[in-house]
UniProtKB/TrEMBL annotation:
Domain of life: Bacteria
Pfam families according to UniProt: MecA
Family from the record: Belongs to the MecA family.
UniProt function note: Enables the recognition and targeting of unfolded and aggregated proteins to the ClpC protease or to other proteins involved in proteolysis.
The protein's name in its UniProt record: Adapter protein MecA
Free-text comment about domains: The N-terminal domain probably binds unfolded/aggregated proteins; the C-terminal domain interacts with ClpC.
Self-association state and partner proteins as the record states: Homodimer.
UniProt-recorded Gene Ontology molecular function terms: protein-macromolecule adaptor activity
Amino acid sequence: MRIERLSQDKIRIFLTFDDLSERGIQKEDMWQEVPKVHDLFTEMMDQAYTELGFDATGPLAVEVFALPAQGMVVIVTRGKYDHHYGASGEEELPDEIYEMEVTLEQADSIVYAFRDFEVVIEAAHVLVNSITSAGKLYSYNDKYYLYFDPKEFEEQPLASLVAVLAEFGDSSPVTEAVLDEYGKTVMAENAVQQICTFFKRQE
């Protein structure tokens, strides 16, 4: 489980399928109100408070994105207005302190964000040995995004692809449609091969 702060009132949690299976949760369970999922959410909020000081009291908007072959991305946004629950001195907050509005989406693409183009070059040079004709490269919100359609891969190469991307970049719930409409298309096809052709990795 990896947690990062996106803003003062928003965090992103990345759950692998191993994280889910260790807790006896199937991917399909995330679409249901089951005690194990509630326990998982409580654990996530406890970890967010411990690591980031993110206080999850009051109303929360929770977006869950299921990513193929990767796991889940959970975006938690805290309500920006004062709530009638006051600050509690107790170490453990009651379960009902979480007022969640949950949105669930099934992502049908693999998108990873990179803060620096040099990192994209590094990732491409690792990928090019196994991927020669796939990928789109976008620029959006001061980041670079590599997009892949999982239908173009067999299961094992797909897992290897995700492993490399996760090492260099951050899994992103941004869709291809958003990137097409609001981002800039840098390379419309065969991005991995093109990057390696035109850019050498740093020594």
